[in-house]
Amino acid sequence: MNHLLTLKTLTQEAFLELLSSAQSIKANPQQYSQALAGKSVAMLFEKPSLRTRVSFDIGINKLGGHAVYLDQQNGALGVREPVSDFASNLSCWVDAIVARTFTQQTIEELAEHGSVPVVNALSDLYHPCQGLADWLTLKEHFVDLTQVHLAYVGDGNNVTHSLMFGAALAGAKMTIVCPPGHFPDAMLVLEAQALAQKHGGDIVLSEKLSALENVSAIYTDTWISMGDTVELAEIKQKFMPFQVNTQLMQQTNAQLFMHCLPAYRGQEASAEVVDGEQSVILQQAENRMHAQNAVLLKLLG
């Protein structure tokens, strides 16, 4: 493991090891307070961020390391100077690069041209750190991930992709329900299904909410991703039947509600569900830091 660009390149052993490491870091923070002493991490952000920026910054600090935040006031990486130059220059000074970018291609270029580990903090295709945090959260509630049935409802996106590969590596079942035309990337679905079959899991897609039976948790995300220009009225017409509300939680016997945030109450999920007793959204948010610290320790420790 030289980088974390996507979960799909991890072995099952490496994936489960990261989850166990995150649990240990969370339970025994003092044991890791100097784990990254003397290490510096550059954080490149093309997009605005709350959870990703703060969880990495504070997390690196809790491990005894130093974080350098670099926003892109001039737009996407590669506009002011080539991505290759960003990567090679930063590699002269820092020990790792964390990047939140518009495209996966930028992440891949940073890894190709830099000489230090690169962590994908979000791209158009993947959100591996979110995926790790989410499966860590599920592990805390259900222990045996092979018995988990995760439902994802809404827009198939980068988060869905990472959850799929997490499910495949965990040997869990995942059912994805989307409106027609809004399913996750077909090639990535096939890859995830093949990986799931290898590890005893299952990835199922459907257009019908009736496909959700006896699920462990229901996960949803915003209907409009950051930067999209689609009219909200048009999106609501397609997606409102897929809203996660109390009725859906009861019909599916879901024990938990999950969301990567920010959440728009009354749209992808009702306020009663988002703020209800079954909601673990803040546990997911906290676990971002622990999962990411596990990744940094694996790459740098």
State the low-pLDDT regions, or none. none
Quantity of strands, as a count = 9
End-to-end separation in angstroms reads 12 Å
What is the average of the pLDDT values?
96
The biggest beta sheet, please? Answer: 5 strands, parallel
Overall shape:
globular
Structural class: alpha/beta
The helix fraction, in percent, is: 40-55%
Order of helices and strands: HEHEHEHEHEHEHEEHHEHH
Task: Characterise the protein shown here.
- The chain is of the alpha/beta class and 301 residues long.
- Strands 7-6-5-8-9 form a five-stranded parallel β-sheet.
- The longest helix is centred in the last third of the chain and has 20 residues.
- The protein starts with 11 loop residues before the first helix and ends with a helix.
Ordered list of secondary-structure elements with their pairings:
Layout: H1 12-27, E1 40-45, H2 51-62, E2 66-71, H3 83-90, E3 96-100, H4 104-113, E4 118-122, H5 128-142, E5 149-153, H6 158-170, E6 173-177, H7 186-199, E7 202-206, E8 217-220, H8 232-239, H9 246-252, E9 256-259, H10 271-274, H11 281-300
Parallel strand pairs: 1-2, 1-3, 3-4, 5-6, 5-8, 6-7, 8-9
Helix pairs in contact: 1-5, 1-11, 2-11, 3-4, 5-6, 5-11, 6-7
